[in-house]
Amino acid sequence: MKIAIVGGGPGGYIAAIRAAQLGAEVTLIERGRLGGTCLNVGCIPTKCLLHSAELMEMIREQGPKIGVEAPEVKVNFPQIIAHKNEVSDRLVGGVAGLMKANRVKTVTGEACFTAPRKLTVTREDGTKETVTADAIILATGSVNAAPPIPGLAENPDCIDSTGALSLEKLPETMVVVGGGVIGVELACAYAGFGTEVKVVEAMDHVLPMLDGDLTKVGLAHMKKMGIEFHLSTPVRSFEKTENGVRVNCERNGEPVAFEAEKVLVAIGRKPNTGSLNLDAGGVKHERGAILVNDRMETNVPGVYAIGDCVKGYAQLAHTASAMGEVAAENIMGQEAHYDERTNPTCVYMEPEAASVGLTEEQAKAKGIDYKVGTFPMAANGKALILNGGEGLVKIIAGAKYGEVLGMHIIGPRATDLIVEGALAIDLEATVDELVETIHSHPTVSETMREAALDVMGRTLNM
Ligand code: FAD
Protein backbone atom coordinates (compact mmCIF):
# COMPACT_ATOMS: atom_id res chain seq x y z
CA MET A 1 0.00 0.00 0.00
CA LYS A 2 1.42 3.40 -1.05
CA ILE A 3 0.42 6.37 1.10
CA ALA A 4 1.20 10.04 0.44
CA ILE A 5 0.91 12.40 3.39
CA VAL A 6 0.85 16.17 2.93
CA GLY A 7 2.21 18.06 5.95
CA GLY A 8 4.87 17.00 8.42
CA GLY A 9 3.36 18.37 11.66
CA PRO A 10 2.26 16.23 14.64
CA GLY A 11 -0.65 14.93 12.55
CA GLY A 12 1.30 14.04 9.42
CA TYR A 13 4.49 12.68 10.92
CA ILE A 14 2.67 10.48 13.44
CA ALA A 15 0.39 9.16 10.66
CA ALA A 16 3.54 8.39 8.63
CA ILE A 17 5.12 6.38 11.45
CA ARG A 18 1.92 4.46 12.22
CA ALA A 19 1.34 3.64 8.54
CA ALA A 20 4.96 2.51 8.14
CA GLN A 21 4.63 0.32 11.25
CA LEU A 22 1.67 -1.38 9.58
CA GLY A 23 3.69 -2.06 6.43
CA ALA A 24 2.83 0.87 4.15
CA GLU A 25 5.24 2.53 1.74
CA VAL A 26 4.97 6.14 2.91
CA THR A 27 5.93 9.45 1.27
CA LEU A 28 5.72 12.53 3.49
CA ILE A 29 5.55 15.86 1.66
CA GLU A 30 6.46 18.96 3.66
CA ARG A 31 7.09 22.40 2.25
CA GLY A 32 8.77 23.82 5.35
CA ARG A 33 10.34 22.23 8.41
CA LEU A 34 9.29 18.87 9.78
CA GLY A 35 7.41 19.17 13.07
CA GLY A 36 4.90 21.70 11.69
CA THR A 37 3.42 24.48 13.78
CA CYS A 38 3.80 22.50 17.01
CA LEU A 39 7.58 22.12 17.06
CA ASN A 40 8.52 25.26 15.12
CA VAL A 41 6.12 28.07 16.10
CA GLY A 42 3.55 26.56 18.47
CA CYS A 43 3.44 24.25 21.47
CA ILE A 44 7.13 23.77 22.11
CA PRO A 45 8.40 27.34 21.51
CA THR A 46 5.64 28.85 23.68
CA LYS A 47 6.36 26.43 26.49
CA CYS A 48 10.05 27.31 26.35
CA LEU A 49 9.24 30.99 26.84
CA LEU A 50 6.69 30.18 29.55
CA HIS A 51 9.18 28.02 31.42
CA SER A 52 11.72 30.86 31.54
CA ALA A 53 9.01 33.29 32.65
CA GLU A 54 7.68 30.94 35.35
CA LEU A 55 11.15 30.38 36.72
CA MET A 56 11.66 34.14 36.97
CA GLU A 57 8.30 34.66 38.63
CA MET A 58 8.94 31.82 41.04
CA ILE A 59 12.33 33.16 42.09
CA ARG A 60 11.00 36.71 42.41
CA GLU A 61 7.70 35.95 44.16
CA GLN A 62 8.17 32.64 45.96
CA GLY A 63 11.95 32.72 46.40
CA PRO A 64 12.22 34.94 49.48
CA LYS A 65 9.40 32.98 51.18
CA ILE A 66 11.08 29.60 50.68
CA GLY A 67 14.58 30.80 51.45
CA VAL A 68 15.95 31.17 47.93
CA GLU A 69 17.26 34.68 47.59
CA ALA A 70 18.43 35.95 44.22
CA PRO A 71 17.96 39.68 44.44
CA GLU A 72 19.17 40.31 40.89
CA VAL A 73 17.05 38.09 38.67
CA LYS A 74 17.54 39.43 35.16
CA VAL A 75 16.01 38.61 31.80
CA ASN A 76 18.45 37.73 29.02
CA PHE A 77 15.88 37.86 26.24
CA PRO A 78 18.17 36.89 23.31
CA GLN A 79 19.22 33.82 25.33
CA ILE A 80 15.56 32.92 25.99
CA ILE A 81 14.95 33.00 22.23
CA ALA A 82 18.20 31.11 21.54
CA HIS A 83 17.20 28.38 24.03
CA LYS A 84 13.76 28.12 22.40
CA ASN A 85 15.42 27.70 18.98
CA GLU A 86 17.79 25.07 20.31
CA VAL A 87 14.97 22.95 21.78
CA SER A 88 12.89 23.34 18.62
CA ASP A 89 15.83 22.41 16.33
CA ARG A 90 16.60 19.37 18.43
CA LEU A 91 13.04 18.08 18.23
CA VAL A 92 12.78 18.79 14.49
CA GLY A 93 16.00 16.81 14.03
CA GLY A 94 14.41 14.03 16.06
CA VAL A 95 11.45 13.86 13.67
CA ALA A 96 13.83 13.61 10.69
CA GLY A 97 15.54 10.71 12.50
CA LEU A 98 12.19 9.02 13.11
CA MET A 99 11.29 9.29 9.42
CA LYS A 100 14.55 7.62 8.47
CA ALA A 101 14.22 4.92 11.11
CA ASN A 102 10.72 4.09 9.86
CA ARG A 103 11.78 4.20 6.17
CA VAL A 104 9.41 7.08 5.41
CA LYS A 105 10.46 8.92 2.25
CA THR A 106 10.39 12.69 2.81
CA VAL A 107 9.93 15.10 -0.08
CA THR A 108 10.51 18.83 0.41
CA GLY A 109 7.97 20.82 -1.57
CA GLU A 110 4.42 22.08 -1.77
CA ALA A 111 1.73 19.61 -2.78
CA CYS A 112 -1.51 20.43 -4.54
CA PHE A 113 -4.26 18.49 -6.26
CA THR A 114 -4.32 18.53 -10.04
CA ALA A 115 -7.16 15.97 -10.21
CA PRO A 116 -8.98 13.74 -7.72
CA ARG A 117 -6.34 11.62 -5.89
CA LYS A 118 -3.54 13.12 -7.98
CA LEU A 119 -0.96 15.36 -6.30
CA THR A 120 1.74 17.50 -7.85
CA VAL A 121 4.65 18.60 -5.69
CA THR A 122 6.49 21.80 -6.52
CA ARG A 123 10.02 21.88 -5.11
CA GLU A 124 11.81 25.06 -3.98
CA ASP A 125 13.74 25.20 -7.28
CA GLY A 126 10.45 25.17 -9.21
CA THR A 127 10.71 21.60 -10.48
CA LYS A 128 7.58 19.51 -10.26
CA GLU A 129 6.93 15.88 -9.42
CA THR A 130 3.67 13.93 -9.62
CA VAL A 131 2.97 11.74 -6.62
CA THR A 132 0.67 8.80 -7.02
CA ALA A 133 -0.58 6.80 -4.09
CA ASP A 134 -3.29 4.34 -3.09
CA ALA A 135 -4.28 6.69 -0.27
CA ILE A 136 -3.62 10.31 0.62
CA ILE A 137 -3.67 11.93 4.07
CA LEU A 138 -4.04 15.72 4.17
CA ALA A 139 -2.40 17.21 7.27
CA THR A 140 -1.64 20.78 6.29
CA GLY A 141 -2.53 22.34 9.65
CA SER A 142 -3.61 25.92 10.27
CA VAL A 143 -2.30 29.48 10.11
CA ASN A 144 -2.93 32.57 12.22
CA ALA A 145 -6.13 34.32 11.22
CA ALA A 146 -5.68 38.02 10.49
CA PRO A 147 -8.97 39.91 10.94
CA PRO A 148 -9.79 42.62 8.38
CA ILE A 149 -9.28 45.43 10.90
CA PRO A 150 -8.08 48.75 9.43
CA GLY A 151 -4.39 49.40 10.06
CA LEU A 152 -3.46 45.80 10.88
CA ALA A 153 -1.86 44.55 7.66
CA GLU A 154 0.38 47.59 7.12
CA ASN A 155 1.67 47.84 10.70
CA PRO A 156 4.88 45.87 11.39
CA ASP A 157 4.49 46.32 15.16
CA CYS A 158 1.26 44.32 15.01
CA ILE A 159 2.54 40.77 15.27
CA ASP A 160 1.02 37.29 15.40
CA SER A 161 2.05 34.41 17.67
CA THR A 162 4.89 33.47 15.30
CA GLY A 163 6.25 37.03 15.51
CA ALA A 164 5.91 37.01 19.30
CA LEU A 165 8.13 33.92 19.46
CA SER A 166 11.04 35.51 17.63
CA LEU A 167 11.27 39.13 18.77
CA GLU A 168 14.81 40.46 18.96
CA LYS A 169 14.18 42.77 21.89
CA LEU A 170 11.91 42.47 24.91
CA PRO A 171 9.13 45.06 24.47
CA GLU A 172 8.35 47.30 27.44
CA THR A 173 4.65 47.28 26.65
CA MET A 174 2.39 44.88 24.78
CA VAL A 175 -1.32 44.76 23.98
CA VAL A 176 -2.63 41.27 23.35
CA VAL A 177 -5.76 41.21 21.23
CA GLY A 178 -7.67 38.00 22.04
CA GLY A 179 -8.16 36.19 25.33
CA GLY A 180 -7.99 32.64 23.98
CA VAL A 181 -5.32 30.09 24.91
CA ILE A 182 -2.56 31.47 22.66
CA GLY A 183 -3.14 35.10 23.71
CA VAL A 184 -3.28 34.24 27.40
CA GLU A 185 -0.17 32.01 27.33
CA LEU A 186 1.92 34.62 25.56
CA ALA A 187 0.53 37.36 27.84
CA CYS A 188 1.75 35.30 30.83
CA ALA A 189 5.17 34.75 29.27
CA TYR A 190 5.78 38.42 28.50
CA ALA A 191 4.32 39.62 31.82
CA GLY A 192 6.71 37.19 33.53
CA PHE A 193 9.65 38.80 31.69
CA GLY A 194 8.55 42.21 32.96
CA THR A 195 6.63 43.56 29.93
CA GLU A 196 3.56 45.62 30.85
CA VAL A 197 0.77 43.56 29.28
CA LYS A 198 -2.86 44.46 28.57
CA VAL A 199 -5.27 41.87 27.15
CA VAL A 200 -8.14 43.25 25.06
CA GLU A 201 -11.04 40.87 24.39
CA ALA A 202 -14.31 41.46 22.50
CA MET A 203 -16.26 38.90 24.57
CA ASP A 204 -17.13 39.38 28.24
CA HIS A 205 -14.84 36.53 29.32
CA VAL A 206 -11.53 34.90 28.48
CA LEU A 207 -10.62 31.22 27.97
CA PRO A 208 -14.16 30.14 27.04
CA MET A 209 -13.10 26.48 26.82
CA LEU A 210 -12.47 26.25 30.58
CA ASP A 211 -14.92 25.62 33.41
CA GLY A 212 -15.84 29.00 34.93
CA ASP A 213 -14.35 28.12 38.35
CA LEU A 214 -10.94 27.51 36.74
CA THR A 215 -11.04 30.76 34.80
CA LYS A 216 -11.72 32.69 38.02
CA VAL A 217 -8.55 31.31 39.66
CA GLY A 218 -6.47 31.88 36.52
CA LEU A 219 -7.68 35.45 36.08
CA ALA A 220 -6.98 36.31 39.71
CA HIS A 221 -3.39 35.04 39.36
CA MET A 222 -2.78 36.84 36.07
CA LYS A 223 -4.09 40.09 37.52
CA LYS A 224 -1.68 39.59 40.45
CA MET A 225 1.10 39.27 37.87
CA GLY A 226 0.12 42.72 36.64
CA ILE A 227 -1.76 41.73 33.47
CA GLU A 228 -4.70 44.06 32.79
CA PHE A 229 -7.83 42.58 31.22
CA HIS A 230 -10.20 44.73 29.15
CA LEU A 231 -13.26 42.62 28.34
CA SER A 232 -16.24 43.46 26.09
CA THR A 233 -13.81 45.73 24.25
CA PRO A 234 -13.75 45.03 20.49
CA VAL A 235 -10.88 46.51 18.47
CA ARG A 236 -11.92 48.90 15.68
CA SER A 237 -8.56 49.97 14.19
CA PHE A 238 -4.79 50.09 14.65
CA GLU A 239 -2.78 53.28 14.17
CA LYS A 240 0.98 53.67 13.96
CA THR A 241 2.44 55.95 16.63
CA GLU A 242 5.94 57.22 17.36
CA ASN A 243 6.61 54.40 19.84
CA GLY A 244 4.50 51.60 18.46
CA VAL A 245 0.79 51.15 17.91
CA ARG A 246 -2.42 52.71 19.14
CA VAL A 247 -5.23 50.17 19.45
CA ASN A 248 -8.58 51.90 19.01
CA CYS A 249 -11.41 50.00 20.67
CA GLU A 250 -14.99 50.44 21.75
CA ARG A 251 -16.51 49.76 25.16
CA ASN A 252 -20.22 50.29 25.90
CA GLY A 253 -20.44 52.35 22.73
CA GLU A 254 -17.64 54.70 23.84
CA PRO A 255 -14.19 54.88 22.21
CA VAL A 256 -11.27 53.65 24.30
CA ALA A 257 -7.63 53.30 23.21
CA PHE A 258 -4.46 51.57 24.37
CA GLU A 259 -0.92 52.17 23.22
CA ALA A 260 1.94 49.68 23.15
CA GLU A 261 5.32 49.00 21.61
CA LYS A 262 4.01 45.70 20.19
CA VAL A 263 0.49 44.43 19.60
CA LEU A 264 0.02 40.69 19.51
CA VAL A 265 -3.06 39.73 17.52
CA ALA A 266 -4.19 36.28 18.62
CA ILE A 267 -7.79 35.96 17.56
CA GLY A 268 -7.74 32.40 16.28
CA ARG A 269 -6.40 30.19 13.52
CA LYS A 270 -7.82 29.07 10.18
CA PRO A 271 -7.22 25.90 8.16
CA ASN A 272 -4.12 26.04 6.00
CA THR A 273 -5.57 24.50 2.86
CA GLY A 274 -5.24 27.39 0.39
CA SER A 275 -2.29 25.81 -1.42
CA LEU A 276 -3.93 22.38 -1.81
CA ASN A 277 -6.49 23.23 -4.51
CA LEU A 278 -9.06 21.08 -2.74
CA ASP A 279 -11.65 21.75 -5.44
CA ALA A 280 -9.43 20.16 -8.11
CA GLY A 281 -9.16 17.15 -5.81
CA GLY A 282 -12.95 17.07 -5.36
CA VAL A 283 -12.50 17.28 -1.57
CA LYS A 284 -15.47 18.84 0.26
CA HIS A 285 -14.67 21.69 2.60
CA GLU A 286 -16.28 24.67 4.29
CA ARG A 287 -14.21 27.81 3.82
CA GLY A 288 -11.08 25.67 3.66
CA ALA A 289 -11.95 23.42 6.63
CA ILE A 290 -12.06 19.83 5.32
CA LEU A 291 -15.13 17.74 6.15
CA VAL A 292 -14.36 14.31 7.61
CA ASN A 293 -16.11 11.50 9.44
CA ASP A 294 -14.77 9.89 12.65
CA ARG A 295 -12.59 7.53 10.53
CA MET A 296 -10.96 10.72 9.18
CA GLU A 297 -12.29 9.97 5.69
CA THR A 298 -13.17 12.85 3.37
CA ASN A 299 -15.90 12.53 0.71
CA VAL A 300 -13.30 11.20 -1.78
CA PRO A 301 -12.60 7.48 -1.27
CA GLY A 302 -8.95 6.99 -0.29
CA VAL A 303 -8.44 10.64 0.74
CA TYR A 304 -8.22 11.31 4.47
CA ALA A 305 -7.70 14.54 6.44
CA ILE A 306 -6.46 15.08 9.99
CA GLY A 307 -5.49 17.77 12.49
CA ASP A 308 -5.98 21.52 12.32
CA CYS A 309 -7.12 21.48 8.67
CA VAL A 310 -10.35 19.56 9.40
CA LYS A 311 -13.64 21.07 10.46
CA GLY A 312 -15.17 20.87 13.90
CA TYR A 313 -12.44 19.67 16.25
CA ALA A 314 -10.07 21.24 18.77
CA GLN A 315 -6.94 22.57 17.04
CA LEU A 316 -4.41 20.80 19.24
CA ALA A 317 -1.27 18.80 18.56
CA HIS A 318 -2.44 15.71 20.44
CA THR A 319 -5.74 15.85 18.51
CA ALA A 320 -3.81 15.88 15.21
CA SER A 321 -1.61 12.96 16.30
CA ALA A 322 -4.58 10.90 17.52
CA MET A 323 -6.35 11.53 14.20
CA GLY A 324 -3.16 10.59 12.35
CA GLU A 325 -3.11 7.17 14.00
CA VAL A 326 -6.81 6.67 13.22
CA ALA A 327 -6.34 7.57 9.52
CA ALA A 328 -3.26 5.34 9.11
CA GLU A 329 -4.96 2.37 10.79
CA ASN A 330 -8.12 2.69 8.68
CA ILE A 331 -6.09 2.90 5.46
CA MET A 332 -4.21 -0.23 6.50
CA GLY A 333 -7.42 -2.20 6.94
CA GLN A 334 -8.05 -1.75 10.64
CA GLU A 335 -11.18 -0.21 12.15
CA ALA A 336 -10.36 2.95 14.11
CA HIS A 337 -12.49 5.89 15.21
CA TYR A 338 -11.51 9.27 16.60
CA ASP A 339 -13.12 9.85 20.03
CA GLU A 340 -13.24 13.51 21.12
CA ARG A 341 -14.61 12.69 24.62
CA THR A 342 -11.21 11.93 26.06
CA ASN A 343 -9.37 14.86 24.47
CA PRO A 344 -7.90 17.15 27.13
CA THR A 345 -7.63 20.92 26.76
CA CYS A 346 -4.66 22.52 28.47
CA VAL A 347 -3.73 26.12 29.18
CA TYR A 348 -0.11 26.54 30.20
CA MET A 349 -0.67 29.76 32.12
CA GLU A 350 0.32 30.21 35.73
CA PRO A 351 -1.08 28.17 37.45
CA GLU A 352 -1.64 25.60 34.71
CA ALA A 353 -5.21 24.64 33.85
CA ALA A 354 -6.49 21.49 32.21
CA SER A 355 -9.88 20.15 31.42
CA VAL A 356 -11.42 17.01 29.97
CA GLY A 357 -15.04 16.05 29.38
CA LEU A 358 -18.00 18.20 30.33
CA THR A 359 -17.70 21.49 32.16
CA GLU A 360 -20.39 22.24 34.74
CA GLU A 361 -21.85 24.81 32.32
CA GLN A 362 -22.11 22.13 29.58
CA ALA A 363 -23.63 19.52 31.94
CA LYS A 364 -26.25 22.09 32.96
CA ALA A 365 -26.99 23.09 29.36
CA LYS A 366 -27.44 19.42 28.38
CA GLY A 367 -29.89 18.89 31.24
CA ILE A 368 -27.74 16.12 32.75
CA ASP A 369 -28.41 15.10 36.34
CA TYR A 370 -24.93 15.60 37.78
CA LYS A 371 -23.01 15.96 41.04
CA VAL A 372 -19.93 18.08 41.62
CA GLY A 373 -16.93 17.38 43.84
CA THR A 374 -14.17 19.90 44.44
CA PHE A 375 -10.95 20.02 46.39
CA PRO A 376 -8.71 23.05 46.92
CA MET A 377 -4.97 22.87 46.21
CA ALA A 378 -4.51 24.77 49.49
CA ALA A 379 -5.39 21.55 51.39
CA ASN A 380 -2.76 19.48 49.54
CA GLY A 381 0.77 19.29 50.92
CA LYS A 382 2.60 19.05 47.59
CA ALA A 383 0.63 21.90 46.00
CA LEU A 384 1.31 24.03 49.04
CA ILE A 385 5.04 23.39 48.56
CA LEU A 386 4.98 23.97 44.80
CA ASN A 387 2.86 27.09 44.41
CA GLY A 388 1.51 28.07 47.80
CA GLY A 389 -1.67 26.05 47.26
CA GLU A 390 -3.27 28.09 44.50
CA GLY A 391 -5.95 26.25 42.49
CA LEU A 392 -8.53 23.51 42.73
CA VAL A 393 -9.81 20.26 41.24
CA LYS A 394 -13.41 19.88 40.19
CA ILE A 395 -15.08 16.65 39.09
CA ILE A 396 -18.45 16.46 37.36
CA ALA A 397 -20.02 13.01 37.80
CA GLY A 398 -23.37 11.43 36.89
CA ALA A 399 -25.78 11.81 39.84
CA LYS A 400 -27.04 8.20 39.70
CA TYR A 401 -23.97 6.06 39.01
CA GLY A 402 -21.14 8.49 39.74
CA GLU A 403 -19.49 8.02 36.33
CA VAL A 404 -16.86 10.68 35.63
CA LEU A 405 -18.23 13.13 33.05
CA GLY A 406 -15.67 15.88 33.37
CA MET A 407 -12.49 16.71 35.26
CA HIS A 408 -11.08 20.20 35.64
CA ILE A 409 -7.84 21.11 37.32
CA ILE A 410 -6.07 24.38 37.95
CA GLY A 411 -2.87 24.21 39.92
CA PRO A 412 0.65 22.84 39.71
CA ARG A 413 1.16 20.08 37.10
CA ALA A 414 -2.49 20.23 36.02
CA THR A 415 -1.57 19.53 32.39
CA ASP A 416 0.14 16.26 33.36
CA LEU A 417 -2.51 15.21 35.87
CA ILE A 418 -5.48 15.65 33.52
CA VAL A 419 -4.71 12.34 31.81
CA GLU A 420 -6.19 10.58 34.88
CA GLY A 421 -9.50 12.27 34.02
CA ALA A 422 -9.19 11.33 30.33
CA LEU A 423 -8.50 7.71 31.26
CA ALA A 424 -11.44 7.71 33.70
CA ILE A 425 -13.78 8.95 30.95
CA ASP A 426 -12.39 6.44 28.44
CA LEU A 427 -12.87 3.54 30.87
CA GLU A 428 -16.26 4.89 31.98
CA ALA A 429 -14.86 4.86 35.51
CA THR A 430 -16.92 6.02 38.46
CA VAL A 431 -15.78 8.23 41.32
CA ASP A 432 -15.77 5.10 43.57
CA GLU A 433 -13.17 3.58 41.24
CA LEU A 434 -11.00 6.71 41.39
CA VAL A 435 -11.25 6.53 45.17
CA GLU A 436 -10.32 2.82 45.22
CA THR A 437 -7.10 3.69 43.36
CA ILE A 438 -4.33 4.51 45.80
CA HIS A 439 -2.70 7.84 44.93
CA SER A 440 0.93 8.36 45.94
CA HIS A 441 1.81 10.80 48.71
CA PRO A 442 2.82 13.58 48.68
CA THR A 443 1.61 14.39 45.18
CA VAL A 444 -0.81 16.84 43.66
CA SER A 445 -2.68 13.81 42.27
CA GLU A 446 -4.13 13.25 45.74
CA THR A 447 -6.41 16.24 45.06
CA MET A 448 -8.16 14.23 42.36
CA ARG A 449 -8.95 11.40 44.73
CA GLU A 450 -10.17 13.94 47.30
CA ALA A 451 -12.41 15.63 44.71
CA ALA A 452 -13.84 12.19 43.86
CA LEU A 453 -14.43 11.64 47.60
CA ASP A 454 -16.18 15.01 47.72
CA VAL A 455 -18.60 13.86 44.99
CA MET A 456 -19.44 11.01 47.40
CA GLY A 457 -19.73 13.46 50.31
CA ARG A 458 -16.80 12.11 52.30
CA THR A 459 -13.53 14.03 51.79
CA LEU A 460 -10.83 13.03 54.25
CA ASN A 461 -8.47 15.97 54.21
CA MET A 462 -10.83 18.88 54.37
P1 FAD B 1 0.73 21.65 11.59
O1 FAD B 1 1.51 21.39 12.81
O2 FAD B 1 0.32 23.07 11.32
O3 FAD B 1 1.57 21.10 10.36
C1 FAD B 1 1.13 21.27 9.05
C2 FAD B 1 2.33 21.22 8.13
O4 FAD B 1 1.86 21.16 6.79
C3 FAD B 1 3.22 22.44 8.21
O5 FAD B 1 4.53 22.05 8.50
C4 FAD B 1 3.12 23.08 6.81
O6 FAD B 1 4.36 23.63 6.38
C5 FAD B 1 2.74 21.88 5.96
N1 FAD B 1 2.01 22.23 4.74
C6 FAD B 1 0.93 23.04 4.62
N2 FAD B 1 0.50 23.06 3.35
C7 FAD B 1 1.33 22.26 2.64
C8 FAD B 1 1.38 21.86 1.29
N3 FAD B 1 0.49 22.26 0.40
N4 FAD B 1 2.37 21.02 0.91
C9 FAD B 1 3.30 20.58 1.80
N5 FAD B 1 3.29 20.91 3.09
C10 FAD B 1 2.31 21.74 3.51
N6 FAD B 1 -1.38 22.49 20.68
C11 FAD B 1 -1.27 21.73 21.78
O7 FAD B 1 -1.76 20.60 21.80
N7 FAD B 1 -0.60 22.17 22.89
C12 FAD B 1 -0.06 23.42 22.94
O8 FAD B 1 0.52 23.79 23.95
C13 FAD B 1 -0.17 24.25 21.80
N8 FAD B 1 0.39 25.47 21.79
C14 FAD B 1 0.31 26.24 20.66
C15 FAD B 1 0.88 27.50 20.66
C16 FAD B 1 0.82 28.30 19.53
C17 FAD B 1 1.46 29.66 19.54
C18 FAD B 1 0.18 27.81 18.35
C19 FAD B 1 0.13 28.64 17.11
C20 FAD B 1 -0.39 26.55 18.34
C21 FAD B 1 -0.34 25.76 19.50
N9 FAD B 1 -0.93 24.50 19.53
C22 FAD B 1 -0.85 23.74 20.66
C23 FAD B 1 -1.65 23.95 18.35
C24 FAD B 1 -0.77 22.96 17.60
O9 FAD B 1 0.44 23.55 17.23
C25 FAD B 1 -1.51 22.48 16.37
O10 FAD B 1 -2.77 22.00 16.78
C26 FAD B 1 -0.77 21.35 15.67
O11 FAD B 1 0.50 21.75 15.27
C27 FAD B 1 -1.58 20.87 14.47
O12 FAD B 1 -0.89 19.84 13.86
P2 FAD B 1 -1.12 19.51 12.32
O13 FAD B 1 -0.25 18.34 12.03
O14 FAD B 1 -2.56 19.43 12.04
O15 FAD B 1 -0.61 20.81 11.53
TrEMBL record:
<feature type="binding site">
    <location>
        <position position="268"/>
    </location>
    <ligand>
        <name>NAD(+)</name>
    </ligand>
</feature>
<feature type="active site" description="Proton acceptor">
    <location>
        <position position="441"/>
    </location>
</feature>
<keyword id="KW-0676">Redox-active center</keyword>
<dbReference type="InterPro" id="IPR012999">
    <property type="entry name" value="Pyr_OxRdtase_I_AS"/>
</dbReference>
<dbReference type="InterPro" id="IPR001100">
    <property type="entry name" value="Pyr_nuc-diS_OxRdtase"/>
</dbReference>
<feature type="binding site">
    <location>
        <position position="47"/>
    </location>
    <ligand>
        <name>FAD</name>
    </ligand>
</feature>
<comment type="similarity">
    <text>Belongs to the class-I pyridine nucleotide-disulfide oxidoreductase family.</text>
</comment>
<dbReference type="GO" id="GO:0006103">
    <property type="term" value="P:2-oxoglutarate metabolic process"/>
</dbReference>
<dbReference type="InterPro" id="IPR006258">
    <property type="entry name" value="Lipoamide_DH"/>
</dbReference>
<dbReference type="Pfam" id="PF07992">
    <property type="entry name" value="Pyr_redox_2"/>
</dbReference>
<keyword id="KW-1015">Disulfide bond</keyword>
<dbReference type="InterPro" id="IPR023753">
    <property type="entry name" value="FAD/NAD-binding_dom"/>
</dbReference>
<dbReference type="InterPro" id="IPR016156">
    <property type="entry name" value="FAD/NAD-linked_Rdtase_dimer_sf"/>
</dbReference>
<keyword id="KW-0285">Flavoprotein</keyword>
<keyword id="KW-0520">NAD</keyword>
<keyword id="KW-0274">FAD</keyword>
<feature type="binding site">
    <location>
        <begin position="178"/>
        <end position="185"/>
    </location>
    <ligand>
        <name>NAD(+)</name>
    </ligand>
</feature>
<keyword id="KW-0547">Nucleotide-binding</keyword>
<feature type="domain" description="Pyridine nucleotide-disulphide oxidoreductase dimerisation">
    <location>
        <begin position="344"/>
        <end position="452"/>
    </location>
</feature>
<dbReference type="GO" id="GO:0004148">
    <property type="term" value="F:dihydrolipoyl dehydrogenase (NADH) activity"/>
</dbReference>
<dbReference type="InterPro" id="IPR036188">
    <property type="entry name" value="FAD/NAD-bd_sf"/>
</dbReference>
<dbReference type="InterPro" id="IPR004099">
    <property type="entry name" value="Pyr_nucl-diS_OxRdtase_dimer"/>
</dbReference>
<keyword id="KW-0963">Cytoplasm</keyword>
<protein>
    <recommendedName>
        <fullName>Dihydrolipoyl dehydrogenase</fullName>
        <ecNumber>1.8.1.4</ecNumber>
    </recommendedName>
</protein>
<feature type="binding site">
    <location>
        <begin position="140"/>
        <end position="142"/>
    </location>
    <ligand>
        <name>FAD</name>
    </ligand>
</feature>
<feature type="disulfide bond" description="Redox-active">
    <location>
        <begin position="38"/>
        <end position="43"/>
    </location>
</feature>
<dbReference type="GO" id="GO:0050660">
    <property type="term" value="F:flavin adenine dinucleotide binding"/>
</dbReference>
<feature type="domain" description="FAD/NAD(P)-binding">
    <location>
        <begin position="1"/>
        <end position="324"/>
    </location>
</feature>
<dbReference type="GO" id="GO:0005737">
    <property type="term" value="C:cytoplasm"/>
</dbReference>
<dbReference type="InterPro" id="IPR050151">
    <property type="entry name" value="Class-I_Pyr_Nuc-Dis_Oxidored"/>
</dbReference>
<feature type="binding site">
    <location>
        <position position="201"/>
    </location>
    <ligand>
        <name>NAD(+)</name>
    </ligand>
</feature>
<dbReference type="Pfam" id="PF02852">
    <property type="entry name" value="Pyr_redox_dim"/>
</dbReference>
<feature type="binding site">
    <location>
        <position position="308"/>
    </location>
    <ligand>
        <name>FAD</name>
    </ligand>
</feature>
<keyword id="KW-0560">Oxidoreductase</keyword>
